[in-house]
Amino acid sequence: MYQWRKFEFFEDKYAAKCDIPEDEDDDVDDDVNNKKKKKTEKKIECCSSGRGKVVTGFDDGTVCLLDRGLKFNFAFQPHSSSVLFLQQLKQRNFLVTIGEDEQLSPQQSALCLKVFDLDKMQSESSSKASPDCVGILRIFTNQFPEAKITSFLVLEEVPPILLIAIGLDNGSIYCIKGDIARERITRFKLQVENHLDKALSSITGLGFRVDGQSLLLFAVTPNSVSLFSLHDQPPRRQTLDQIGCGINSVAMSDRSEFIIGRPEAVYFYEVDGRGPCWAFEGEKKLLGWFRGYLLCVIADQRTGKHTFNIYDLKNRLIAHSVLVKEVSHMLYEWGNIILIMTDKSALCIGEKDMESKLDMLFKKNLYNVAINLVQTQQADAAATAEVLRKYGDHLYSKQDYDEAMAQYILTIGHLEPSYVIQKFLDAQRIYNLTNYLERLHEKGLASKDHTTLLLNCYTKLKDVEKLNLFIKSDDSIGELKFDVETAIRVCRAANYHEHAMYVAKKAGRHEWYLKILLEDLGSYEEALEYISSLESSQAGMTIKEYGKILIEHKPVETIQILIRLCTEDGNKRGDSNGVYVSMLPSPVDFLSIFIHHPESLMDFLEKYTNKVKDSPAQVEIHNTLLELYISNELNFPSISQVSEDGDYLNLASAKTMILSAQSNGTTADHKSSEEGRNRLERREKGLRLLKNAWPPETEHPQYDVDLAIILCEMNAFKDGLLYLYEKMKLYKEVIACFMQTHDHEGLIACCKRLGDSVKGGDPSLWADVLKYFGELGEDCSKEVKEVLTYIERDDILPPIIVLQTLSRNPCLTLSVIKDYIARKLEQESKMIEVDRQAIEKYQEDTLAMRKEIQDLRTNARIFQLSKCTACTFTLDLPAVHFMCMHSFHLRCLGDNEKECPECAPEYRSVLEMKRNLEQNSKDQDRFFQQVKNSKDGFSVIAEYFGKGIISKTSNGSASGLRSGNASSSSGF
Length: 972
Known about the structure:
Elements: E1 5-6, E2 10-17, H1 22-31, E3 44-50, E4 53-58, E5 63-67, E6 71-76, E7 82-88, E8 94-100, E9 111-125, E10 128-138, E11 149-156, E12 162-168, E13 172-179, E14 184-191, E15 205-211, E16 214-221, E17 224-229, E18 236-241, E19 250-252, E20 258-261, E21 266-270, E22 273-278, E23 283-290, E24 293-299, E25 306-312, E26 317-324, E27 327-333, E28 336-341, E29 345-351, H2 354-363, H3 367-376, H4 381-397, H5 401-410, H6 417-423, H7 430-442, H8 448-461, H9 464-471, H10 474-478, H11 484-493, H12 497-507, H13 510-521, H14 524-533, H15 536-553, H16 555-566, H17 578-583, H18 598-611, H19 618-630, H20 651-664, H21 673-692, H22 705-714, H23 718-727, H24 731-741, H25 744-754, H26 765-774, H27 781-794, H28 799-806, H29 815-858, E30 879-881, E31 887-889, H30 890-893, H31 904-922, H32 924-933, H33 937-946, H34 961-969
Parallel strand pairs: 1-26
Antiparallel strand pairs: 2-29, 3-4, 4-5, 5-6, 7-8, 8-9, 9-10, 11-12, 12-13, 13-14, 15-16, 16-17, 17-18, 19-20, 20-21, 21-22, 23-24, 24-25, 25-26, 27-28, 28-29, 30-31
Helix pairs in contact: 2-3, 3-4, 4-5, 5-7, 7-8, 8-11, 11-12, 12-13, 13-14, 13-15, 14-15, 15-16, 16-18, 18-19, 19-21, 19-22, 20-22, 21-23, 22-23, 23-24, 24-25, 24-26, 25-27, 26-27, 27-29, 32-33
């Protein structure tokens, strides 16, 4: 005891006097009709506390209830003689008392047990009220003989069930269980010591312990400590020790340990026997337990003084020590310890707050004690961390850096890490700093800066073993206890590439893993193997980022990986279909990685198109291949190449590039025969692609036609241009190509093929060819004669136009067209003769018609038919005669009297034809289309005039419906 430190963690709150006022005392005496002489001094026999009250029982049968501050509340007299024991219940506001009452008969004991409901008060007189007594019970019966009661304890089970244990001086324990208010109880007796033993010991202390469903009862005598298992029937007794203690030297800890005090020590008992023992000298007058503290009133045999000590057993210190008078009772209420002395004075002792206790310890630099104190009293983590920080600061000021860091580590999670890091940034304390940062990462509280600092510490110390442990720990990576990107960056900067790669691979940061392999180590084959092991989406993203480096060093292997990614070869899929192909990466997405390697790009796209025939990006792929094939020099495609942000250059930019290239004359020279052969092979591939990608049965090709034409023009690819123009039916552009190169033989052969109208050609091409030769300025008699043959055959141009066209070429003579002109003149003469004969015939017919019309107008008609034209019977009246010389019975005509049935169909057909012609005159589109499609447009116009369709004109000033109709019908 003398080795334990003493501290004043408790303080005396106040002192008071426990007694009943004199007037109340007189009233109580009056209530019992002065049967008992008034005492001048009352003695406190028993005390209890609970539910905000302190209850005292006196030797005159009076019970007094005191409020906070031990101020008198009220008093009543439950027993007539003396109150021996009482206990305030916790769950219900009940008070259980044992006292002496009037002895009704010699056979009955004067001791009885009563239960009072303090919430219910009943008036005994006009000036006095007492609580309602809900139950009265005689303790001793014939089966339970009377003996002196030495101890008393009540356990509240499930209300209203109570378990009352009464210890006797004969070594027996009477137990009463049940609802006393309803007198539904059971009694049983427990025998602590054997009846055969003549010197029976009294029960000096009792203690209940509840373990789950089991109920245990500790019982102590001066010679033994016993344990009863009350859930067994009959209750089973177990002896825990062969030593005991006296009265009032018993307590129960908050962990339900049974505590007894003897002059040499204080003993703790568990259900299986004696536990720890604490040696404190002196007679233990009273024992108690309060909030983890052991309370002990010790009498010094040498001086006779009494000392009240409060022990903190966990921290081995005396939290309070004070000299006191002789203490009769020890209570706990209102968060304080209440000591009641034999002279009825009371001392209230309260615990100081944690801050005050810690300040006291800090002033004495007792940081270990402070730490133990806050941990023992289960203070919050922030308060504990603050104590640890102050202790660490104290050790740091003493330059005990290792111990200081040990304390700082315990504050992780509550103390700002920068506070500690700033203190240990000195290079000489790098080991301590490393230790702190490691713990910070273990708890998952490290930031990116902390990771950077820790890895820098490892690299500066060259501690590869710790670096391996930090980097390659499965737990650290799995729980992401450090920032992955920061770790990779620091390891790369310190040339710990293996560790950086390990972190990147473990964390799934493929881009960092490949960056290290390619940029730092140059391990291209390993990088390709790693990419092959990734999923398709991840592999695609990594190749987009690092494909340029891979193509530069490992083009063949990189192209193989790309082919697997962009086709079904790299995916486990059974059947190929358009939907699935559309889900695969597109080769167009990877064009940018071939920026400096067009040969590899051409190889990649060729292999892809050989495998995939219906790619969604077919047009873009063919466009790119055409650029590669047709370009004079094999460079990365310039027209459809992707820019840095992945956008294609537009067609307007391409046309600008063409004009610039043509104006600057940037056609590449052939530097060697090898380059010429390569160019020729590429041109052949380009022409095949142009043809294969535009099948005859499709209307549109699988490439951009405008782009293809631009490429062919830029690179003077004549074969490609001819194919495209012919495919697009731009025949005039086709012959223009031959004209530009002065390929007369090819020009005429092309016109023979494309100028045949029977095969869908354009005969007007011969006119363009004739115009070309007419403006050529050189002798081309042979070609002109051949051209005239086809012009004459198809009657494409009038002779006058031919003469005018050829007259512009001074190198041509009349002999070239002599035969053509002669044949044309002869043909024209024949046509003139035919036309003259037709004119004469039409004139004769016209004169005959005019004569007939005149005759009808001036002369009478004689109808001489004697038979009806319809029925062939002899005509009789009434009869109808028509101007067409047909006669009919009126009955044969029926309702149709206005037109001849014989001539009406022909007449109607003529009228219908006339209406159709007038309707056609309003269809201007049809007229112009006939003029355009006819070899001789003048003949079409003449036909329209001959039929009288467009000969009607408006008189301008004429009025009436006729002139209006005429105007509308001639509105061409």
